[in-house]
């Protein structure tokens, strides 16, 4: 087995990255040399029209090109363009039925002469759908037969001793990204739309989650009245530890609509954090002579249940004094207390 030193491994990795980067830069230069006669704008026209009229983009390829085709499909989907992957072999045995009259087909083949792709062409032409070819051989049969040809030529693959698809597949993937993102811009697809397609991702949560979706409900939060002694405060904090704090509530006269919620008409007058409790314990036996009002922090920062969770996190982290807040009481539009949101929960989610 050939032996490589650590330096040789790093040098080889850098060479491969540069080789693939040069393939991308060469393709970009060719694209700009004649922007009106390179097929790109025609491809975008067909793809845009397909999606705009309610059709979809059908991407096909076999082997390594098939894997790239699948990745292009998921990029199109996540950026707002309806797309599906069609395996050429399965297409020849019935799956061509997925292609509708309003669709457009993007076919990947670096050689342009892949048999499975070429055997699809008569059926695709019979359906009258536009065919966009993407490959590295302008003299190939696919290049001659398709409606639009996209130049995916590379001088050589990144591997020096075997012709493994590397630079060519990287370029095909990048061209797919370019198509998807150009369509995204033309269709006015925003980061808010992107978030709707990615509710489970970090960006989706940042753009979609509201405080009411992540807050701890008031029934799960430790509360005491201002006159409560510290043994009661500690007992409540122990029973309901999730928030790491105890809210100090001052009952007020009942208001219409309070219903059976005992907290609906209470006023928050302070917060006692676990840190406040630890500092109070430093008084030793005198701690139990202290009341909640003696220990609580009165400088309250609150948020609305309709605020974005990301904004609540910012409020807790970006304080004028440089300290962070571990939790925020949550109020509704009528200033009624609904619960709390904690920095720990938001850090886990966002």
From TrEMBL:
GO MF terms held by the record: carbohydrate derivative binding; isomerase activity
Pfam families: CBS (PF00571), SIS (PF01380)
CDD domains: SIS_Kpsf
GO biological process terms held by the UniProt record: carbohydrate derivative metabolic process; carbohydrate metabolic process
Keywords carried by this UniProt record: CBS domain, Repeat
Recorded family membership: Belongs to the SIS family. GutQ/KpsF subfamily.
Name listed for the protein in its UniProt record: KpsF/GutQ family protein
Organism, as annotated: Jimgerdemannia flammicorona
């Amino acid at each position: 087995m050939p032996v490589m030193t650590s330096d040789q491994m790093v040098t080889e990795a850098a060479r491969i990255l540069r080789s693939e980067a040069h393939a991308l830069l060469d393709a970009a230069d060719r694209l700009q040399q004649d922007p009106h006669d390179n097929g790109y704008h025609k491809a975008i026209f067909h793809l845009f029209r397909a999606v705009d009229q309610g059709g979809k983009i059908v991407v096909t390829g076999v082997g390594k090109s098939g894997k790239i085709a699948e990745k292009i499909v998921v990029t199109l989907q996540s950026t707002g363009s309806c797309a599906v992957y069609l395996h050429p072999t399965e297409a020849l045995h019935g799956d061509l039925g997925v292609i509708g009259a309003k669709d457009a087909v993007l076919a990947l083949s670096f050689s342009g002469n892949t048999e499975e792709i070429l055997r699809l062409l008569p059926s695709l032409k019979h359906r009258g759908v536009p065919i966009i070819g993407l490959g590295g051989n302008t003299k190939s049969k696919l290049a001659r037969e398709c409606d639009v040809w996209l130049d995916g030529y590379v001088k050589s693959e990144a591997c020096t001793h075997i012709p493994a698809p590397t630079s060519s597949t990287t370029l095909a993937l990048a061209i797919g990204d370019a198509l998807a993102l150009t369509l995204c811009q033309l269709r006015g697809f925003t980061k808010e739309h992107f978030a709707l397609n990615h509710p489970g991702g970090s960006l989706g949560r940042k753009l979609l989650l509201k405080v009411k979706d992540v807050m701890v409900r008031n029934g799960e939060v430790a509360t005491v009245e201002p006159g409560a002694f510290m043994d009661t405060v500690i007992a409540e904090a122990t029973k309901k530890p999730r928030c790491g704090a105890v809210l100090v509530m001052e009952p007020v006269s009942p208001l219409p609509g309070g219903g059976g919620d005992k907290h609906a008409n209470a006023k928050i007058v302070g917060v006692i954090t676990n840190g406040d409790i630890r500092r109070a314990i430093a008084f030793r036996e005198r701690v139990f002579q202290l009341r909640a009002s003696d220990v609580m922090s009165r400088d309250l920062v609150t948020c609305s249940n309709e605020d974005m969770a990301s904004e609540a996190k910012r409020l807790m982290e970006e304080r004028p004094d440089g300290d962070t807040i571990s939790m925020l009481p949550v109020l509704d539009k009528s200033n009624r207390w609904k619960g709390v949101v904690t920095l720990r929960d938001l850090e886990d989610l966002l």
